[in-house]
Specification:
The chain is of the alpha+beta class and 170 residues long. It contains two helices and eight strands. It folds into two domains: 47 residues, no CATH class; 95 residues, no CATH class. Strands 1-2-3-4 form a four-stranded antiparallel beta sheet, with no helix packed on it. Strands 5-6-7-8 form a four-stranded antiparallel beta sheet, with no helix packed on it. The two termini are 62 Å apart. The relative contact order is 0.11.
């Protein structure tokens, strides 16, 4: 703030001077003070940018990208919009889509994502890590980020836990 006050004082004195030489000298001094103020703001802006670069980032990375599976004219993929279609948790849903129309045919909760809401923290999603077709059985094997493995029967539209960590099978 001292720089701002000095600039104001210099401006007031410059206007008050009737002597042309004094006014010119004060005008030069005012220009230097203005440059110092501008330089001060530029440094503050850079410091702010540096401080923002150190801001904490989200504790969980983005959900893994898992390629959809096209099988018998239906595209199966991890449902990243489940809340918009009646889902109750982040992650854990498989959706069947008509690839020609884009219409959602059905959605299945493959596994339960354990809630941490009682502990006062928001529940992070738990998403698919891998998804592979078992064509001879019309099933998809899904592994989630925690390592839990599930088999989805595409005809019955059911999910069965087979191994690894699971919120129900501990």
């Amino acid at each position: 703030m001292r720089i701002h006050k000095a600039a104001l004082i210099a401006i007031v004195v410059a206007f008050a001077c009737t002597d042309h030489a004094s006014a010119s000298l004060i005008s030069d001094a005012t220009a230097h003070v203005a440059q110092d103020v501008a330089h001060s703001y530029a440094n503050t802006s850079q410091e702010t940018t540096t401080m923002n670069d150190d801001m904490p980032s989200p504790s969980r990375p983005s959900a893994p990208v898992v390629a959809p599976i096209l099988h018998k004219g239906v595209r199966y993929e991890q449902d990243m919009q489940s809340y918009s279609h009646g889902g109750t948790q982040s992650g854990g849903y498989l959706v069947a889509i008509d690839p020609k129309s884009g219409e959602r045919l059905w959605m299945l909760k493959v596994y339960e994502v354990p809630s941490q809401d009682a502990a006062g923290v928001s529940t992070p999603g738990r998403y698919f890590r891998t998804m592979r077709l078992l064509p001879e059985r019309d099933e998809i094997e899904i592994e989630n980020e925690a390592g839990g493995k599930y088999i989805v029967d595409l005809k019955q539209r059911t999910s069965t836990w087979i191994s690894g960590p699971d919120s129900v099978h501990k």
